[in-house]
Amino acid sequence: MGSILKKVNNPADLRSLSKKELLTLASEIREKIINTVSKRGGHLASNLGTVELTLAIHYVFDTPRDKVLWDVGHQCYTHKIITGRKDRFHTIRQYGGLSGFPRRDESPYDTYDTGHSSTTISAGIGMVEAREIEGEDYKVIVVIGDGSMTAGIAFEGLNYAGQLNKDFIVILNDNEMSISPNVGALANYLARIMTGQWINRFRNDIKSILKTMPGIGESVVKIVKQVEESLKGFISPGILFEELGFTYVGPIDGHRIDVLINTFSNVKKMKGPILVHTITKKGHGYLPAEKDPSFFHGLGPFKPKTGKLITDQNSPPTYTHVFGDTIVEIAKKDSKIVAITAAMPEGTGLSRFAKEIPDRFYDIGIAEQHGVSFAAGLALNGAKPVVAIYSTFLQRAYDQIIQDVCLQNLPVVFAIDRAGIVGEDGPTHHGVFDLSYLRAIPNMIVMAPKDENELRHMINTAFTLSSPVAVRYPRGKGIGVPLDPFLSLVDVGKGEILKEGGDLVIFAIGSMVYPSLKAASLLINKGIYATVVNCRFVKPMDEELISELASEIPFVLTVEENVLDGGFGSGVIETLVNNEVSNVKIKRVGLPSVFVEHGHQDLLRNKYKLNAEGIANEAITLIEQQPHHAEPVHHIKSLKKGLFIGKNIKH
Ligand SMILES: Cc1ncc(C[n+]2csc(CCOP(=O)(O)OP(=O)(O)O)c2C)c(N)n1
Predict the structure, then answer these.
(1) pTM score, two decimals?
(2) 289 in ligand 1 pocket by Cβ < 6 Å?
(3) What is residue 642's predicted lDDT score, i.e. its pLDDT?
């Protein structure tokens, strides 16, 4: 550990350091972050960009009495290191270790749990109000990035905080980047402030207005020109924030610790809502990350010397990748297809689309709600939109999915990546609710592929339907099956039987189909023969197939990578009730009603029995629980003709 960092256990220790020592500390912290992330993976560029900012905040403000809220929270590593957690920092994002995001249950310095963006201005102003009610006088400080500022909720918060006129500090950490370069009019406005172009824009606007006014001509324009220099002193570059009721301070260099400390010390004495505009560089201090901040936003283990990822070259393509290629393939044949991402072209696999079909690609910023309503408008007037959003972030647009898309029964395709357990990012990022929240909505079709090849056909199918369609698929690499060179159609609402056996039927969906097949093989060793169904659709369900099999086979196991509440298994039970299939013993495998912690994807899947052994054990428990269960049947007595038995299935 670096010599200064050794001495720093909490923010109070910072205050005894000289400015020079603070600079040394900043570089020691950078080194620690780079080394740790290179081994564990994590968010790198955003953390490297906020080292000085974090030190200055804790130096000036009386934390944890003063409350700091980190928007998104992916930039909180320095904060964790200097608030008593440096010795556990190597455990970050690991099961049982520190979270990669602020967590109130981890430290009193973590005042608000984040992970999803743009919530902290609203939460912060809530804390301000509570402070006033309680008659206390601590400061509330929000740190929010320019990317996160593109979300509607951030403006809802600003709008409200401005008119409340209470002491409140918002630090806008502007690095011109979201994960990719930031987009939108606000980003352009901030860029103009940074380059001083706001004054030119203002001057030009005034000139053109004056010129159009009758009786006011070139002479007045000349006067304006003469005073344009002095205008700089009178008009705040942050006029937008001023109009919203904030005192604007900035822009200031967010890597100059002396400037930051001086500015925050002054701001601390000021009254009312204040917005401090700091300019930082994503990846600051680590050349590979400075050069390619998008790549280094969040990544797996890498070699710190070169910045090269440590990957297994032979692993199958990710679902994201297969989706990205498939959507380009389909869109090249159908000029009506347009693709929408909410600030995640790389993460959703749409960057190839953006490159090859730029005129039909939309990065709408971190604005999932807007993205879904935007898609509704596009669909209504003839375009065929695909909205590619992670399962967890789509939660934010639930009302738009219901009212704007499903109520009007519009053909919008939702490509829902990162469905199920995502791993190290933890509870804010697991996509474990979508089957429940989507299957409740009329008109919606919900499907989940068993592998990356089926994903291709499902995406293709989705564009042939005239209603909203959601295709949900997991984070990470595919199964490794060959990809068909053609695109075919999946029968809507139809499942497929992959294996036959008469003792138990396993209804599986999406990522749980292959583990269920493997479980069926394990069960044979125990003398239990299972039918395994790839159900493919959560809505509409294959009522006929499900009812028929459940009528013939005494035990039913449902398996899903989703919360059990209201999920796929619940749908199977509803189907059986609706079809009056009784006399069947059912058990559901899926996630309990808990917020799943962070940790490796496989570890968490194993913990929650979402693997072959877990599924097999659940089947055995189900069968053995029944005191007088029937003798194993082993063969299905009769099945209606026409059911498709899957081919080329790896067992
Ligand atoms: C609602 C929501 N949508 C998408 C994301 C994914 N995401 C995480 S960080 C990020 C970019 C944030 O940009 P900014 O706030 O400028 O912070 P920076 O990383 O540039 O420091 C995005 C899109 C998220 N966390 N929350």
Answers:
(1) 0.92
(2) no
(3) 36
